[in-house]
Each structure stands twice: as C-alpha cells, then as structure tokens.
Specification:
Structural class: alpha+beta
Strand content: 15-25%
Shape: elongated
Distance between the termini: 54 Å
Strand order of the largest sheet: 1-2-4-3
Number of strands: 4
Helix content: 25-40%
Number of helices: 5
Order of helices and strands: HEEEEHHHH
Length: 134
C-alpha cells in the first residue's frame, strides 16, 4: 500500500467521492478491474461492490507565498474574516452578506486552511496581526 495516489492516476480513474479528514484529502475509487488495487489506504464495501479509499497527494498551491497569508484570501473570505474579528456569529454574517449560513461555514473552513488555523480565536489573531495599524 502506498501512502497517496498520484494525481494522474486519479484523473484516469472514476472518482466516486472526495472528502477531507483533518488535513488529508481522500477519494473513493472503484477497485474492481483497476490496475492500481494496491494504492489505497482503506476500503469501503457497499452492497457487493468494494471501493478503495486513497489519499490524494497535495497539489502545489498557485496562490501567493505564505509570507502574507492574507494575500491568498478572496475578497469575500477577507470580508468574512473581518466580520468574525468583529465578533459576529455565522448566522449574523450570513444575514449581513445575504448568503446562507452553510456558505459562511464553507468560507470559514477555507479560511482555516489558508491561514493554517483550527479555531475562530486563532483566525482573528492571524488576521488582525497582518492588518495595517489604523
């Protein structure tokens, strides 16, 4: 068993599902008839079909260098980050921006990944430490 599937192998195979566990991105692929039956880290059996669970190799980000994490944020992500810094809840942010609270949750999850944090207080600290003094 290898630790991760190569991106070109995954592109040629039918990816049935993609999900994240902690910092790892996993994909579910069919095992039957696959030439790469040994590159999975786990299996999933549904009915009479067995699928492999592979770790997808991380892609090199095309975003700016990590020296300024705020530069990698979209304008909407920066807006959400600032509203979090002001103490707004997901529901309040959703109302203010006219989006669903689930979309707010998605923006926050992306912020956590891009800024390398795991909680709202750390996000606020990271954002405010990079903002110019007023």
């Amino acid at each position: 068993m290898s630790s991760a599937c190569a991106a070109d192998e995954l592109d040629r195979r039918c990816v049935l599902a993609t999900f994240a566990v902690d910092d790892a991105v996993c994909v579910v692929v069919p095992l039957e008839g696959s030439a790469h039956q040994d590159d999975h880290v786990g299996t999933l059996t549904l009915g009479s079909s067995t699928y492999g669970i592979c770790l997808k190799k991380p892609e090199t980000p095309a975003s700016p260098p990590a020296s300024d994490p705020l530069a990698a944020l979209t304008s909407r992500e920066l807006e959400v980050a600032m509203l979090i810094s002001m103490g707004h809840s997901n529901k309040q942010i959703a109302r203010r921006l006219g989006i669903s609270r689930y979309t707010v949750g998605t923006h926050i999850a992306r912020l956590f990944v891009k800024l390398g944090v795991h909680c709202r207080p750390a996000l606020v600290t990271r954002v405010l430490s990079r903002m110019p003094a007023l």
